[in-house]
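User: I'm writing a short methods note and want a consistent example. For Fatty-acid--CoA ligase, I'll paste the sequence; you return only the structure tokens, no commentary, since I'll be parsing the reply automatically.
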Amino acid sequence: MTMPSQLRRTDVSDLGADSLPAALARWARERTDERAVTFVDYQSDADGVAVSLTWRELDARVDAVAAWCAGRAERGDRVAVLVEQSAEYVVAFLGALRAGLVAVPLFPPSPLPGHNDRLAGVLADCGPRIVLTTREQADGVELFLRERKLSGPRLAAVDVLPQAAFDPVPLAADDLAYLQYTSGSTRAPAGVMITHGNVVANARQGYAAYECDAATTSVSWLPLFHDMGLVVGLAVPVLGGFAATLMDPLAFLIRPQRWLQQLAATPGPAVSAAPNFAYGYVASRTTEAEKAELRLDHVVSLGDGSEPVLPATLAAFYTKFADCGLAPRMHRHTYGLAEAVVMISVSPAGSPPRQRTFDRASLAAGRAVPVEPGAEHGSTLVSAGRPVDQKLRIVDPETGLVLPDGRVGEIWSSGANVGVGYWGRESAEVFEAVATDADGEPVAPYPGRAGWLRTGDLGVVLDGELFITGRIKDLIIVDGQNHYPQDIEVTVEQAHPAIRRHTVAAFAVAGPSGEQAVVVAERAKQVAAADVDTAELTAAVRAAVSQAHGLALREVKLLEPGAVPRTSSGKIQRSACRARYAEGTL
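Assistant:
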């Protein structure tokens, strides 16, 4: 019987490796024939075909990639990973690191809107010496590079490279390990420079925070090129020496039940993570018959991050799967960003993330004033817990002054996991900011760090716990009043049944007398376009937003399903919505 989450004890004292390749070599010696990574392929079979590598097999495959790369590149050269979601991705990424090169986790060319333009932009920015892919993708990748005039890098298919012995390259904690390109929800993608020390530090933090141990299995459908997917699906399992089960994101989107089925199939303690929308999505798509086959008592931690965590989504998910053994105490609201590898804070184990309701107007004015749950003008936020082995402060973004508890400001963080800057850009003002106290004295960052990371996110600390309120660049300011777009978006999606959930974007545009608010939303798939009374829907949205927020909307636009711009990780791109609205291309 699995030990309940609140009784588990996680020991990170034995995780002493200074790099992921070193950790892999250790487990190849100590856990030679135990399973290291499994990829469940749903393309060839709708029921899934599992392909696994042991620690010894993974280590040998990584050696082969490292040997090939080391003979064709110099220390510090970039290696772009253009591999489909698979065990081969793990091989390619770790092979580049073992060769002393700088990996760039990306994705193969794709017909998905915007993907190829983003891929071309990132490749032009990082200038890779080598591009790693697979035999199946090689022709398409080669054509893409030629068409985009990016044909300089050497190309290799990692699944056909011959076995080769390789003497490990010495890797220092300060050496660059990889460039994690941001998802670009509020700006053009930038490559965060992550050192070996950064990723090992955050993997240790994740191992402890999610209560992992040697018997754990990580189950992830998140893309490995995304920060959360890379850490949950690769870095933490490799550092911790436990098994990882990977799925393709598309397999989850087509049948989200597969995620819980894979969790149920794990023989011991299981951990996973996903954006908030995934929890509501799997709850709405799982039938009672499918639910009856799921036993999930052994799940230890379910991380939730990369977008606002909604109380209603959590309630729907845990109510739906309570009979399967899932409980809110398993849920871990995680706050982080690519600039800090992925994790900054997490809600504590053993109890549900705390929910607090604040007066909406006071919150927008910069003060967290608690009110009773269900209050008419209240905004309920889910706690993101406490920082994990790092420092966190709430700071006035204009002055750098550290604010007291209960005041809303920019979240600043400092820790061994924070990256060293953006590739090819001057970024000290973001990664080495100076915070001051009320006496004007500098506030010391984490030991050994040059300064504080400015996250660009707004939050408040109350009773020692962090609550995320929004992003600075997304804040809507109309007639001198602040409005958080996520609050407006929740109101809008509940205003009319023809509005598709989790597809609403609220943003500000310049008007004749100052900023004005605009809302765009997708039509629900189950509602035919001909059945929508646009005037009625618009009136309902305007009335709801006016009543709840005291805000008059300039325009309400209803779009077709799939038309609202998103990042590679699925987050709504408010900035892209704003730009396309201004251009008239929405």
